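In this notation, each integer encodes one residue's backbone shape. One such record reads:

___
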Amino acid sequence: MTRQALINEIQKLYVEKKEKKAEIANDVYIFQKYPDLKSLFQEYKLSGERWHQLVREVVFFDSESVRYMYERTMQLIRRIGKDTKMYFKLKTELGTYILPDRLSDFNRLLELYEVFFCDIFHGLARRINLDVLSEENKSQIVAGKIQWARTLNDPLNLGLLENPLIFTMTRPTTRFGVPENVLLILSILRMKYDSVFLLGYNFRDPLSPTEHGILGKIAEGCSRALRLTLLQELIPEAKKFVFLKLDDPRVLSMESRAESRIREHSPRNELFKALIEWRRMYRGLHLRIASTYTTTFPLDHIHNVDKMYELWILFEFLDFLRSQGSNITIKRFPREFIISTGQYEYTLFYEKRYEGWSSFGALPDFTIEVAGEIKAVMDAKNWLLEDKIGAIYKMLGYMNNLDAPLGILFFPSESKLKEEKVHYGEGLEHHKDQCLFNCVLYPSSSSKDYDDKITRFNELLSLILKNVD
């Protein structure tokens, strides 16, 4: 038995036994009716964990939105951090993780594998580049185009009179070993090698069945392609490069020569252009550097979902700013970003600690500063938070403690919030310029939630610019 068995039993209460959610959260009721669950919970609960907390995670979670939030965040981390080493450490109450995490790496590898074979390889298999060379041959049997001047003059120049006559001939020959074809085979070999390497690597956390399945699919697909390709003769040549680093000068030199040839034959070689771009994306994955030690970020506990909600908001907002034309300079990934937008420039911090007037200090999720002066404090609230009024009072405390004119609270739902989301300090003597914005952002791929997200970010940006002016 494991903790997963405990979670499965809780799910059965709702799905199979048709218990109401409120009753499942009542430990007195449940433990009296299902005594085995009490002992199971005592054995596998986390330190300090209470029954109703675990039930909320298991029964009240919208797993689809949590999964979307995770996948979208990993995608945005790569997009925003593409000019950095990309990976960073994240501490939560359950441990320290490297993001993007291992499963995200493998999903990205699978995505690149599918792009390669669906969009590039199968098209190029029907339009292989080759060199046409003229090969010279001497023989008494005519097999090619006779070079009469050479045939008649060569014997005379050597003082020979040959009989029968030796013909000098040329005939066209094709050569497949051009740089772009070698790169095509090298790409398949590299994906296969990386997948097999990761399958056999002694991870501290063993591969999950999902991760094992991804790598196995890639390794087998690459092996099958190598067995069937018409370019099998290039495999020995490509193997000379497969153990080199992806940015080894010898590999980059071959890519450069391939690009030159592709430009000469454009537009016939659009797919080869796609191959070069694909190799850049694969190189940017840093797969062999990172995946050997990163672990999968678990989403089966509320603390980690809360942390993922923070990161999702951070990188969605940065992506929104970039789409609006802002220039984003990364000072410390992912802790400090300088935002330049027209006449405005400000710094966005993630988890910066402030001393304030209290010896306890303050650690809001996000802050915005101009020349060291706090202009906005932002906090992403818990995924399953019920006491939204308490969160609002905590934000007012941040604003007063840090002397900030603008406070933004991010909530994943509108329940227990007033319809009016932007509140000003009306009728106040000391805080009349303060503004509080309850910003509701729900992670979802639906068009409605996307439109709502853009609307909220526009409102948020407008308030920020008013205060940094």
The chain has 17 helices and 13 strands. The chain has four domains: 3-60, 102-128+178-290, 131-175, 302-468. Residues 302-468 form a domain with the Trna Endonuclease; Chain: A, domain 1 fold (CATH 3.40.1350). The two ends are 59 Å apart (CA to CA).
